[in-house]
Amino acid sequence: MFWSSFPSLVALVALALAKLGNCQPSVNVRLPSTSVLVEGEKYTSGFIVCFATSTPTLVLKLYRIDSQGNRQIVRDGDDGRFGVVDLSFVGSLIATLATTKVSDRGIYECVAQDNGMTDEKNFTIYVDVPPSESKISVTSTASKGIVTQGMPFSVNCSADRSISPVPVIDLTRQGSFIGNVTEHQFIYNVLSATNADEGNYTCLVTNRQGHATKSLPNLIDVQVPATVERFTSVKNPPQNRTIEIEEGTDVQLNCTASGDRTLTVKIVHDNQVLSESSDSTSIIANLLSVKIGRDDGSYACNASNNVQTEMKNLTVIVYRKARVTFFTNMTTCIEKETLATLECNADGDPAPDVTIFDLKGNYLATNTTKATYAFTASESLGGTYTCNAKNKYNSENRTFTLRVAREPDSPTGVQVGDGALGADELNFTWKTLVHDCTDFPVIRYRLLCRGGGSTPVNMIVSAPSTKQSVPESSFHSSIHYNCSVSAENTIGNSSQSNPFLLREPSGSPGRPTAVTKPRSVVVSWTAIPAGGRHGVIRNYTIDVSCVSAHCPVSQPPLSLSSTSLQRNIDGLFPNTEYRVQVSGHNVIGEGPQSPPFTFKTKPDKPSGPPQSFAIPRQLVYPTNFTVMWQKISLNQQNDAITSYTVYVECETASSNCSTTKSVDAPLLRVAITNLSPFTSYTVTVSGSNKEGEGPRSSSVRVTTAQGVPGPVQNLMATPFNARAVNVSWTEPSALNGELQRYDVTYSPSGTTIYAITPSIVIGNLMDEKYTFEVSVVTGGGTSQQRTAEQRPVFPPTVSGPEKTIPLEFNSKRAISCDFRSYPFKGVAKLMRSNEDLTSSADVSNRTEAPPHTQRLIYTVSEVGSYSCAFAGPADSATFEVTAPAEILNSTQSPVTLNGSSISIFVEARQYPDIPEISCADLTGEVSTLEYLDGANYRRATFTVSKARTVECSIVGTDKTVTIVIEGGSSAGETGPIFGLPGWYDYLVVGIIFLVLILLLFILLLLLIRWWRRGRMPSCCNFNSMTNLPQNATIEIEEGSNDQLNCTASGDPTLTVKIVNNNQVLSESSVSTSISAPLQSVKVGQDDGSYACNASNNFRTEIKYLTVIVYRKARVTFFTKAIKCIEKNTPLTLECNADGYPTPNVVILDPKGNTLVTNITIATYSFTTSLDGTYTCSAKNKYNSQNRTFALRVAREPDAPTAVQVSEGASEANELKFTWTAPIHYCDNDFPVTSYRLMCRGGGSTSVNVIVSAPSTERVVPESSFQSAVHYGCSVIVENAIGNSSQSNPFLLMEPSASPGQPTVQTMPRSTLVSWTAIPKEDWHGIIRNYTIDVSCISAHCQSEPPLTFFSTFLQRSIPGLSPNTEYRVEVRGHNVIGEGPKSMSSNFTTWPASSSGVSIGLFAGLTSTLLLIILALSLALVYVVRNAQHTAKMLRAYSGSESIQMSKSALYDEVVVKEKKQQLEEEKVTQSPAYDSLKVVRRKETS
Fold this sequence. Notes:
about 1500 residues, eight-stranded mixed beta sheet, extended
């Protein structure tokens, strides 16, 4: 043992020796290297090592402490397993173990002793025991692993208690984890075994030293016992394990069992197996048409296997329902006092009880299976008797009605209708109650009508007739009759029927309806209800009366008659309201009238012209006049007049002088402008309404006033002689009045003379230029002047032709020169250079020349410079005759070159330039250049040495000539054909001949091939009549028509046919062209491949054509239209499309974004929020179609606008708030329901009212507001969705602006102060009154206090002032809230008082006179008010601008009148009636 630890010892010795060198006397004990040992392991290298400081006297010992705390020293060789090596001299002690046991665990202690000093260290040694299969036990309560389904069992995993540390036990089944514990035992309990608990159970024991497994010796096998799960009948569920089945019916017994391993199921009845199976867990047994005594009894379902056998029973009871088989065969009708016997038989199992009941339900007899009852018949015993058969399963009744003969019942339903003769007879009808006893029928009826104390009708009617005609003459008008019928049979008579009351109608026709026209109406009504006629309605009376305010006197009430339910009524007036009532008549009299119905005839165009049509003479002007009229008579307007049209026709022949002008009603005047002065017109006027234009009035003839004439025309001033000028003109185009004279003024003298005719000679003129001015004078004024200039004599002047005259070669041209002079002086001459040509010219005073002019005409044939001149006076005209560049001659082309060279020439002319001739490729080859007839005519000669084409031209022009020079030949030098040297010429000829032979041979081959091809079939030209093929394919829209054409060639016996799907569509052996029509093509039917076959006895050839039938994409459905939808409502857009190829369907949102795409059908669901238009697009190769859906989302309304305040009905006591309602496209579906008006101010809400729609106004008492408090008044709108935001508030506060600066009209002791109103936008309410502050500002007015006055008008008379005193006046406005700012002040001084010498009596007289004047002015004010209102309307109609506002004092504000007057003056209508009216008003104000 020691030597086995030798290596360790050597190491320790070395360590000890190293420590000896330290010679440290201190003592130290160190822990061993490990404290956990494993059972059975060897620790030869030392499981405990104690260290201490080495000294020569050191002693180390190892102790083990037992459970009582006693020390036991450990020595070498203890228990044959311990080894102890004491190396105290080196400071160490080593303990080893040969084999570890569990008992080795415990507390150990190292003790070091040295020189009386002791040091110790204790520690714990642990010994682990690893798991092993031998230390594991796995058992189960299931014997041999077998357990019955539903029974409990357990699995016990145990580990030996010696295993340390405590292990973890894991339990698995078939590798699936079940659970674990940290103990030495794990018991797994199963309370109810199922198939899921089957398998191999394994225990896994694990601690830190390892693991071990062990399984149950037997697999757990869960066996299912045989069990009858269900034994029943599906159609007849059992009650308490019993099934009750009606005899003759079928029943099926169902048995379901469970179990495994040789399960057998069977159904048994009376020891007879009805059904059995070893394969299925469910079996059935069918019982067909069950019978009592055969199929009833007990049935068993047995289920058995090797575990157990189980049986369930079911009892089947077969029954027969109770039924009545017989109940009395007596006759249905017997006479009184006859013996009657009731007998009732029944059948059933169990046997039924039979009971007979009388008519009141009382039982008469009862028994089993059969019951009888006998009695004597009487009328009271007639009725229905009942037999009842009843057992457990059923109850059945059968009835028998016993009829006892008696007198008939009263007839019913007496009615009156038209007789055979219409209005002359009444046809009475009634109904007979069917009597129970047909053996005693009705034999006759009696019709009685009583009234007015007599019986006019008493008739016998033989049965079976139930009607009788009675002449109407049998009845008297206004007498009521009761008509009834009785019936009679062999037993007796019936009582009288309920009477029919024959009287005048008690009911009225229905309320009439009317279909109106302008002058007639069709009135319809519903008939009097049948219950209110009381006879036959023969006719109706229709009463029509006019109820309009303007009913014409000629329209009395109408009373018309009709035999039908409608009547056409003529002779009415258009646009007139009528009331109509209808009453009905029968033979007795007239009934009540229907409820009245009021209708209004349709409007018609006016039937009369405007009245009092006139043109006031004072309103006729040169270019305009004013037409005035009165309204059309109210009876002739036929609707509201909307406009008037004035027709103006002139009496002259001019086609454009007539005019038409229309004005809107209610204007009753119009100014006709742009007329011609002093012209007669015929004027008419007509009125129009929305139905059209009415007749024109009688015409009025008017002539416009004279106007300013137009200027003279064609003014000319021509010399008359050396001292006079003839001035002439024509009349102006528009004289515009009666001609009085012409004013002719000539300058520089400025003299004016008069003329009556349009021409005058003015003499005594000097030799200078004069200006002549002519104007026209008529009754309408003087025209504008026209001016002309002239002098008495003409200076010599010469006018020649244009400066340059072109002249062609060898041509002539005539030219002329005019020589003009008054008086004529000098000699006219024509010169060319220095040559006088006058003698050869034609010089004369020609008629076509101007006056005082000689014209010289000369024929020019030569170019050069020419001049025309007076020989005496110094005036002349020069011109030049030029020649354009042209080639005159050249060598004739072509020319042959027969030698080494040849000469060609070109001749050209040009003036004034010298022609320069140039020939292409011959530069420098000119041999001669000569001039012919001057330098401007040249001839150029060229020498050419070889064949070529020469083009010559005049330099700088487009004039050219081409000369072709052909090559010649010399003997022995060139060939005769191509001019080639020697035999080359013949060689070329030979080659050309061989080429021609080869071409002929090729042509022959082509002819042979053509001949052969003509006999073989050639196919084909195969196409469509309307659709050109693309790559042998045609595309045809479905439903359209087309025609396939095939043309072939070949012979003999050529056959051509068109084939599709092996079906010949067209074939011909006669014609080379055939066609196949395609009618109304369809997808899937007519598309595909078509072939054209051409064949003869040589060969067959085919060409193909593919036909594609398509259907354009189209949208067939896109979401049913919705007018308006609420927000946050789920909505699904669905789009269906059709087409071939199948179209793609895309739904786009309002912004064009794609929401969804699909084939044929696309749907998109969302929650509504905003408006928008959604688009569905269907697209395929051939088409694209869109359809839209506009989504309208209802929302709360917009805020109202334009909140305003105006006067209420009570004026000063109320404010009327108005506003404009918002408009929303969903208003029809979600209309505004109410408005809320709120006014807030001063920290509170003074107004908060609800206004029901559609009203947009509300009157609020002014007492609702406090003075000096500002209010913001706004309106909120509400509909079914919600409320709007508040409108922009109307600020109700004191006025924010002041009135205009006051103006005053002074007197000695009073003054009249006037001012303009505060601008309306600054009112902030309604201006109720004005405050006028008057204060004295003179130096002598200290004792005069300031004065304050109030006025509700725009002026105020201020009394109580001092004469000749200066005052200041200021004005401010008031509304309900308070007072606005003051106006600008105005200062005024009252007039001085009259002199002191005036007596008191005179002063009193003046005072009385002044009072009378004030009274008269008051009366005049009333008159002015009325006239001012009329004038304001005229101003608004004429100017189209804002009306002139009239103040509360009934006078026009002076400033406004002035502004309007100025405006009318600017518009140049100062002669208009409106302007005159202003002057009238102004005069009244001044007065």
